[in-house]
Amino acid sequence: MKNTKLILTALIIFSAVFVNAQCTIVADAGPNTIQMPCCAPPTIGGSPTGSSTGCSCTLFSYSWSPSTGLSSTTVANPTAAPGATTTYTVTVTHQTCGYATDAVTVTYRQDLSCCRIGDILEAPTKPNSEITIFPNPSGGEFNLKLPASSELKSVRVYNSVGELIQEQTAKEGVVSIDIRNQSNGLYFIQVVCGDKVLLFDKVLKE
Question: How confident is the model at residue 113 (pLDDT cuts 50, 70, 90)?
Answer without folding.
Answer: very low
